[in-house]
Amino acid sequence: MTSTSKDTPESGYAVPPPNLFGVDFGLRLLLLASAVSALVVLVTSKQTESIPTSLPPPFPAFISRDAKFQHSPAFIYLLVALSVTCFYSIITMVASFAAITSPSSSPRMLFHLVLSDAVMAGVMASAAGTAGSVAYLGLKGNSHVNWNKVCNVYDKFCRHVGSSAAVSLVASVLLVSLVVLSSYSLYRRCR
Fold first, then answer.
1. What is the number of domains present in the chain?
2. Which helix (H) or strand (E) holds 139?
3. Which of 14, 59, 98, 157 can pair with 47 through a Cys bridge, CB separation 3.0 to 4.6 Å?
4. Which segments sit on the Extracellular face?
């Protein structure tokens, strides 16, 4: 008995679609690690500096100013997106582990993973882009609107915020990879 289909071997039995949930679980574990590390780096971004003033002598020559992530709505948005991504990755790791232990996974679950991963990828990409643009503005300033750069004064703060935005971008790439992987798995199961 010969078959023209590539999925049917010589014995006549259909080859099951590849189970990629081990790779899925590993990517979700990396997603959790990157989101937690970006979250910790962002939360610890605080620096206090003494800044000289140009006021006459009865006033103090230096004032103390803090730079915190709470001072920027873009960084607060990144904090919320990273927190949601952490919880999301934990929940989907449990679902992925359940799919590994079960003999056959449901196409419905794969479809839900594709949709939710795509939404989370959009949220993380927008948060990373927003925080990255504010960090770049702090690094370079904007001479057209007379916004001065602040990273020459708050160097530690800028390193923390920039690192957090970069690791958040890695989390976004991992989420896009999960969308591609889940889409491929769904395609193989429904074919």
1. 1
2. helix 107-140
3. 157
4. 44-73, 140-160
